[in-house]
Design goal:
Layout lengths: L2 H7 L14 H12 L10 E6 L2 H10 L4 H5 L2 E8 L1 H10 L10 H24 L3 E5 L6 H8 L5 E10 L13 H4 L7 H22 L8 H9 L7 H7 L6
Antiparallel strand pairs: 1-2, 2-4, 3-4
Helix pairs in contact: 2-6
């Protein structure tokens, strides 16, 4: 392995941060690294909102489910899928043409663009000695988050990202076996399920050690529960109201 891969293999989520600031120069470098991620047809359909105002962070922490580390981290990035700029370009250059900004394809492009850029930024932040954690909880009260951040039509918050100097030591959570996710030439369903069986054993042992025996539920059982409970069903009507997923 090289240094880049070694850094990637050491990734862990950080949920406790020191008060040390992230400088403007460091923040600019992190987001600029994010911008160098691949983008479909160079649409670059995302925007990053850096939140450092204490009251703003406290409100976002509340909206994300009272996650204290949103409030405690020195800078909180909100990664937004953004078709606003593209829609404006279409109106200015081809006002006589019908816009398809509200298509499912463009929703996917914007969301994927935001995800690719944010992961680039995460690696950049970790290379500078910071820790990060993604905050999907912003979608729980997504309409209020959008209002707080002043998001126009064609923009939605995909998730947040806490950045700061880690104030905790955490282990690296094991991932699915490589065979479960790396298939050759075609999908191998049997190989995928066998990987889950193996992963259940790994995660059960990991959680047992991490919680001193208090939690031993295997991964597949946790995922079964996740998929059979309604979660954030309000997101689709919100997205439709913002001009997404209409075609």
């Amino acid at each position: 392995m090289n240094e880049t891969i070694e850094l990637m293999m050491k990734h862990r989520s950080v949920r406790k941060f020191k008060p040390d600031p992230v400088s403007e120069e460091q923040l600019a470098a992190i987001v600029a690294a994010g911008q160098m991620a691949s983008s479909s047809s160079s649409v670059q359909a995302y925007t990053v909102i850096a939140v450092t105002d204490l009251e703003q962070k406290a409100k976002l922490a509340e909206l994300a489910g009272n996650q204290a580390y949103v409030n405690e981290c020195p800078v909180f990035l909100v990664w937004c899928a953004d078709l606003y700029r593209l829609s404006d370009a279409a109106k200015r250059h081809l006002p006589e043409k019908q816009s398809y900004a509200d298509s499912t394809e463009n929703f996917m492009v914007a969301t994927i663009d935001a995800a690719l850029a944010s992961q680039n930024a995460a690696l950049a932040a970790e290379s500078l000695g910071f820790g990060i954690v993604y905050i999907g909880g912003l979608r729980t009260r997504i309409e209020e988050v959008a209002e707080l951040l002043g998001l126009p039509e064609g923009v939605y918050p995909v998730y947040g990202m806490c950045i700061g100097v880690a104030d905790q030591e955490t282990g690296i959570r094991p991932r699915l076996p490589l065979d479960a996710v790396l298939h050759h030439n075609r999908y191998n369903a049997e190989q995928s399920i066998k990987g889950v069986e193996q992963y259940d054993e790994t995660t059960t042992a990991y959680m047992k050690a991490r919680t001193n025996g208090e939690r031993t539920t295997p991964w597949s059982e946790l995922m079964a529960k996740r998929l059979t409970e309604p979660t954030r069903l309000q997101v689709r009507p919100f997205l439709e109201g913002k001009g997404f997923l209409k075609r």
